[in-house]
Structure formats: structure tokens, C-alpha cells
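Quick one: C-alpha cells for this chain, please?
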Amino acid sequence: MALEATHKRLHVHIRWLIRRDLPEVLAIERASFEFPWSEREFTQCLSRPNCVGMVAQYEEQIVGYMIYELGKSKIHLLNLAVAPSLRRRGIGSQMVAKLISKLNPERRNKISLEVRETNLPAQLFFRANGFRAVSILHNFYEDSPEDAYLMQFVLGPERTPEGFLPINRIARYTNQQGTF
């Protein structure tokens, strides 16, 4: 069953990317980017021990994906896309929230990514999700002379909106009760 675009928010299940998801991921990639990653680039990246892929699934269909790299003190978001016909339905924001939930003030407290200077929709999307441009990376891309904006989300005392910090049962209890 093909999904039709509607204006209502879609609630998706976000799970690990597995090999059989790759054809759907590649289709979204090709439909989303002027310079898409190849299947080989996906498999090379995902074969590294610190590289993680996740997909957003609605019913039985892959509707988005993200690829990120775990560093010692940060998460580097390498790729994120949502099926073009389903954008602006909250899918991308749910994936970013999932990534933010993996941050920890004592360990990885930052997410970084690069966005093409001409990709205004992506810049606005990440800004709306709490990211800020922190620098310009001149001639960043191999496939064009285009610059990129380095954008970051940094977890800290000023960045604790509901849903952004990982919450476990104990933390939820202490937040409701004050202390034990």
C-alpha cells in the first residue's frame, strides 16, 4: 500500500537499519539529494564499528533513515532523509529526537552535522530542532565547490526541554517527586 501525503503528523517506529532495508533507503536517498550516496558508500559506512543506521518505519514501509557516527564526546550525523511525499509530517523531528535522546551530559553531549549552504530547507529544519550553525566549512564537498554550515546541538542546562534528555524510570520519579 503506497502512503499518501497528508498534513497530519505520522507517528513512526524508529529501529536499527538492516540489510534488507537498503533498497528502500537508497530510493529515499536518490529522491532526496542532488548528490546521493551510492549503495557502496552506505555499506562501507555501516561496516565501520562506530557507524549506526536507523530507519523510520510507518506501517510496513520505510519512510526515513539516518546514519550517524559515535565519537568519544559527540555524535556526528552523516545523513538523514525522509521520503519526499511524507515530509513535514514530523518524521524527521522524531528521528532527531531519538538521536538527541542518546546524548548524556557526562559523555556524548553534542550532535554535529554539515549542511550544504544551498540547502535552506535542511538548515531551517535543524534550526527548528535546536541546532545552531557554528561555522562555515569552505569548499567542503568533493562533488562541488559548495561550502557547508557546521551545525551543532549541545546538551546542557539551557537545553533540557521535555523529550530531549534521556529519561529512565528513576529520573522520571525524581523529577515528579523532587527527591527520594
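The chain has five helices and seven strands.
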